Amino acid sequence: MRKTKIFLDTSVISYLFKSDLPEREAETRALWEYLIAGKYDIVLSDDVLNEVSACNEPKRQMMRDMLAKIEFKEVKVDLTVKEIADEIIQKGILNERNRIDCNHIACAIVSNCRYLLSWNFNDLANTDTNNGVRAITHLLHFSSIDIISPFNLKFREEK
Question: How far apart are CA 145 and CA 114, in angstroms?
Fold first, then answer.
């Protein structure tokens, strides 16, 4: 049986250490146990890894240590990704200020992920962005993705 492929944006990794939001931190840590166990195919972009590298210590090393516990495929932000990100901006789904978020979405699309996981409800994990991204994937003949929070993955029900 094929595993579900998910893209993790930087917020998911960051929330492993978000003690000011204990419910989200606990949910992310529970998810991480499933990721460590190999229950999903995980995709990260070079943008995500660059964002992790830009964090201050000691958080940067803590995030790297957690990433070392999971297997993931790294996707480069290439011309195809940039073109899809441009389309997301041109259609007004997100704006230039959200370029890296657009790259995350585009990487998830070209990697054929089923879900993009994010704790960013303002820009990513919301109805407007999901509807816009569905329109883009349809227009460009890619499989549709859903942008959701770890709460919505319902990973505890996965066998």
Answer: 5
